[in-house]
Amino acid sequence: MISQTIQEQIRKLVLPLGIPNTVDELKLAVKEAFVITEEFSLQYMDSDFHDFFTLTSTDQIQHKDTVKVVFPSPVVLTFCYSGADVSTTQSDDALSSSSQDTLILSPQSSPDRLPWPQEFTIPCFSPEVQIVLEKAMEAYMRDGTLMSVQNVKRNITERLTQAIYAYTAYPSGMQIICVAEALVRKYPCLKEPGSLSGYYGWQMSLKYKMADYRRRLSKFGCPEVTCNTLKSKSPENRKPAKNVKKPRKAEVNYLPPYPTGQSEESLEQERLELLSEVKKRDNTMVIKAKMAKTFALRRHEVVNLSPRVVDFKDRWPALFNPQQINEEFRRITTLDLEPKFMQMLDQYTPNLLSIFCAKGGALGQTLQDKMVAIHQVF
């Protein structure tokens, strides 16, 4: 067992067969355990220097050691418009917001989604904005003076939009309200005079800023938003607000992009190989790895093509295995299906028993007989 640090998250990795013999095998175990599709490297905590070093051999780590997952640095592209032409320049300032079409892209084009938090955490803003906010908070604490946000509103909403996108590209109205409320709770100096809530203007600004952010993402081919462009819709659905495809409440990884270095053709080849692998015995690990690798292709089929169940089963027979149903549920929602189901069943069982006991007639009598049998068991 070792602990893994992944994008500022600390996760525990259990290795039933012990630490693998090679780094590549360890990376494969990490990919499968945490559903990581993009490339990464591993670093281990050196006991002599108390710092992370690149892992070159699994002999360098032991039981309960800490291993860090390191992803490649993002690429920042700034698009500068000049008439009908578009020129692309690379910027060194990852927090630059001087252009309305500056996006921070990972090599996979879209990061793995996180579940929406119970309480939204306001991220840190650029240094100049933080300085302005600190001075404004001093004035607010001194005499209650509210801050004029004209000079910083664009920077704040841009940063909040990026933070929201880490969870979803299509936040609901309630989620946007949660962000606006968290903003004025952390920085009361940003409250709006004359507003009952103090954040209605921020709420509307974030709503339209997210729409603009999705528009910019569609230019880069982000599949989660390009599936809703007019060009991607059928002729009868070519209206902006018609048949919008977006995640439901529990869906975290709704429509991920293809893994780095993969295309639809290469993943289709993996799918064909998977058809032969499912016919072999004791081939669970290979099937699990290929199913994780082809996850994006399946989601593209489900979301964009809406195939019939019988056709989908012919193309993906491995998905209808109970183990892979659990794995697919975890890839989409980041939750384990069976523990979550049993947890919610325990939560709602008292209410269900009350409903059963309140039933009358022949059905009620049948339920009463079954309830007696249940009480005898427990």
TrEMBL record:
<feature type="region of interest" description="Disordered">
    <location>
        <begin position="231"/>
        <end position="266"/>
    </location>
</feature>
<protein>
    <submittedName>
        <fullName>Uncharacterized protein</fullName>
    </submittedName>
</protein>
